[in-house]
Write a structure and sequence with these properties.
single chain, alpha+beta, OB fold (Dihydrolipoamide Acetyltransferase, E2P), de novo design (two linked rop proteins), 2 domains, five-stranded mixed beta barrel, three-stranded antiparallel sheet, 7 helices, 37% helix, elongated
Length: 230
């Protein structure tokens, strides 16, 4: 299939393929996550090699009938990324989450827009913890694992600020009956998150919730990017 449609996309990952090519994983607005062979780009004289860098906006055209496409054209439409240090590690973490969790071909404009926003915030080195949590929420929402912040998932009762809750991927937030449970979350924190209010309390709760939800989706397999933080 020959496709002349331009895709707005970011490089998530690339790996060597045969002697002169790469397989590149892209995250696009129009087609979701898609992989393509970039032929001949490992040659040092090929201009595409310098274009196919992560964290900058590209426009690409693909061709092919199989799930693994061929890269026909690629051009930069965004500035070169200036990410470094912790911000760079965080951006690599976002890329790995998308590549591991978002099914091929699933189009999600909310996740794509949140990814763009996250890269902007990371480039500015602003609100890194909040930026990560907001992106994780967008991805979890797409995967159907973002629970109702205001309702007990078993009883249907309203969340109460001075009570404690546990997060379950299957049931959402449920009352915690065990004193000092290490994973318990205050109802006050859940209500803050439901109202989009970021404080030390809600940030800490969001990190705990998202780690449980993401580990569930990842099947307990560790993320390589997390090792960089250590």
């Amino acid at each position: 299939m020959q496709n002349n449609e331009w895709l707005d996309t970011y490089v998530l990952h690339r790996r060597p393929y045969r002697e002169t090519s790469y397989i590149v994983d892209f995250f696009s607005l129009q087609s979701g996550r898609v992989s393509a062979v970039a032929k001949g780009v490992r040659n040092g004289k090929n201009d595409k090699k310098s274009v196919l860098q992560p964290f900058r906006l590209l426009r690409i055209q693909l061709s092919g009938r199989s799930e693994l496409k061929n890269l026909r054209l690629a051009e930069c439409v965004g500035p070169m990324s200036m990410l470094a240090g912790q911000a760079l590690f965080c951006a690599m973490y976002l890329n790995e989450l998308i590549n591991r969790l978002l099914p091929t071909g699933v189009v999600s404009e909310p996740v794509y827009r949140q990814y763009q926003h996250a890269l902007t915030q990371l480039n500015l080195a602003q609100s890194i913890e909040q930026t990560l949590r907001e992106f994780e929420f967008a991805l979890l929402d797409e995967m159907g694992l973002l629970a109702d912040w205001f309702t007990d998932g078993i009883t249907g009762d309203p969340i109460v600020a001075d009570k404690w809750y546990l997060y379950s991927p299957e049931q959402g937030f449920v009352r915690c009956r065990q004193p000092n449970h290490k994973s318990r979350i205050s109802g006050a924190a859940l209500m803050l998150l439901g109202n989009g209010q970021w404080t030390d309390l809600s940030l800490g709760a969001a990190k705990r919730i998202n780690r449980l939800a993401l580990n569930h989706l990842l099947g307990g397999k560790p993320l390589k990017s997390r090792e960089l933080f250590r």
